[in-house]
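As noted in the main text, all predictions were made from sequence alone. Below is one such record, for RING finger protein 223.
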Amino acid sequence: PGSPNPTSPKPTSPVECSICFNTYDNTFKTPKLLQCSHVFCLECVARLSTGLPPNQPEDQLPCPFCRQLTSIPLEGAPALKTSKELLATLPPELQQEKVLWMEGTKLCCRQTSDDPENPDSCISIDVAMSKPEAPEPPPAGLAGRLSRCDMCDDWKRILLLSALIIIIFCIILWPVQCALKTGNLRCFTRTVAMS
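Prediction:
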């Protein structure tokens, strides 16, 4: 598994995920086996499966290496088969796979605790690909109107553009207008004092 094959790429290390390059463990980084025999950590597979387009009759996850489809069970990525070979290469304390489950886009794991109802006995990570940021309401008054103006966000660019327009007018357009009007570039009439 450590040597790359040009037709079917394998992980560079048998104990790390070839997507995130983190070492496998028995919780969020559990080595999960896809139907094409490629292995990735549970967190990466869960992230990829939450990024699938909605409203599909059956979730089919394409392998990041070979693009072969893997059916994702209704329980989500934690229900995929675990690579027992890779789990066996881990230290003895990490060889017992922990129970994990999906709650929406959260990957959850129960820590060892005397009280299973204790919310602190559960740890979870959000595996959603991206989260839309909640828009912040604009302030009231003039500051609020200016904050809604898209052009006002680029005030430095507007100032620079205005300065360039003034420079272009003074250096190029004004002498051209003067030459057209007077026939030469002497636009200022000199007053000669007669003695």
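Residues 31-98 form one domain. Residues 1-6, 8-12 have pLDDT under 50 and may be disordered. These features were considered when defining construct boundaries for the mutagenesis experiments described in Section 2.9.
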